[in-house]
Amino acid sequence: MLSYQHAFHAGNHADLLKHFVLAFTLNSLNKKDKPYTFYDTHSGSGIYDLLDNRSLKTGEAQKGILTLLKDNQKIPDELCFYFDFVKSFVSKNLYPGSPLFELSLMRRTDTLVLSELHPAEIENLKAMVKEYKNDKSPVVQIHARDGWEMINALIPPKTKRGAVLIDPSYEETQDYLMAEKTIKEINKKWSNGIIMLWYPLLAHRDTEISSMLENITLSAKKVNPNVEIENLTFCVRDKDSHKEMSLKENQEEKNNPPRLYGSGMLVINSPWKLKETTENFIDYIKPFIV
């Protein structure tokens, strides 16, 4: 979706969940010496300015990561890996996107494959990689191509080990169908790869979301009946809190919450202790965000 720009939403509650799961997964992969390949299908620019007009317009970072980092309570040790990484950027009014987590946490023996189709975003992505890449960073490939097509073409990797993050905008109904179709196909070709799918929680898309998750899960269990699958969700308000109304009514209504009431991460071949640690993370951040 070429009209979508993540700068409006960087550092919001959905990013907190997505990036915690991402960082945990990368740390889990790093526990073995063997190299791995990581794919990011919808990379975006990789870093976001929290003082940008788009971020200030929505205020989502203020209600998300900035609210969390105002807290002076001791962060549980098992959650510090996320907060310690993010703090160094937030102190400069920046928030790291998924590619910067990947670039920073992966090792020089690993391979990072990034895909972005938006012409402005991919230039920003290239600039981010150039600025932050060093001699400890992974090998980086940047593709100006459709993420769905990229992942189908390049999987399985030569390294055998690895993971993929799928994070489309979901502004089109087609994205739900493409996520289901693509994950079914790549899971068959790369049955031991970790597949992470971020998805929004939207009441008016409940049918599409439920069908997508159910069909992906059934397909993965056909490939491997013993596969570890986790479906992790973080809700910041009730499902029915948003009232559907006309654009004019919505502009006049000051107290109508956003449609996005939360988000989820479906993880196939889930790393050990992902569910337990993510639930602890959600329990910790929920009082500040909700």
Q: Indicate the structural class.
A: alpha/beta
**Radius of gyration based on Cα positions:** 18 Å
Question: Helix-strand pattern, N to C?
Answer: HEEHHHHEHEHEHEHEHEHEH
Count of DSSP-assigned helices: 12
**Main sheet specs:** 7 strands, mixed
- Count all strands and give the number: 9
Strand order of the largest sheet: 5-4-1-6-7-9-8
Mean of pLDDT: 90
Low-confidence spans? none
Query: Overall 3D geometry?
Result: globular
Percent in strands: 15-25%
End-to-end C-alpha gap: 29 Å
Helix amount, in percent?
40-55%
Write up what this structure looks like.
This protein is α/β, with parallel strands linked by helices and 290 residues long. It is built from twelve helices and nine strands. It has helices at 13-29, 53-58, 60-63, 65-70, 80-90, 98-105, 119-132, 147-154, 173-189, 206-223, 247-252, 274-289, and strands at 37-40, 47-49, 94-96, 111-115, 139-143, 162-166, 194-202, 229-235, 260-268. Helix 1 (13-29) packs parallel to helix 6 (98-105), helix 1 (13-29) runs antiparallel to helix 12 and helix 6 runs parallel beside helix 7 (119-132). The longest helix has 18 residues, at 206-223. The model has no long low-confidence stretch (mean pLDDT 90).
What keyword list fits this structure?
two-stranded antiparallel ribbon; alpha/beta; 45% helix; 12 helices; 290 residues; 7-stranded mixed β-sheet; 17% strand
Short recap of the structure:
The chain has helices spanning 13-29, 53-58, 60-63, 65-70, 80-90, 98-105, 119-132, 147-154, 173-189, 206-223, 247-252, 274-289; strands at 37-40, 47-49, 94-96, 111-115, 139-143, 162-166, 194-202, 229-235, 260-268. The chain has 290 residues and is of the alpha/beta class.
